[in-house]
Amino acid sequence: MAVSLIEQLSQEFDPEMYKDTYSESLMKIINQKAKGKTVKAKKAEPAKEGKVIDLMAQLKASLQNPKSKNAS
């Protein structure tokens, strides 16, 4: 069942679609410190409560209603 789902939703990986925001933020901090500026750490936001779903039901439903490969 899982293999079938993976085959239906698989597509070519395009690394250009993703951006490394952590490294960018870290480099900004490093550059500011290198210039002698003080950097204040941002406070972390509390985690949001997630919506609990039945994964097995979702998996079965996705196999019954296959999407095209380009839809994902």
TrEMBL record:
Cite the GO molecular-function annotations of the record: double-stranded DNA binding
* Protein name in UniProt: Ku protein
- Highest taxon of the lineage: Bacteria
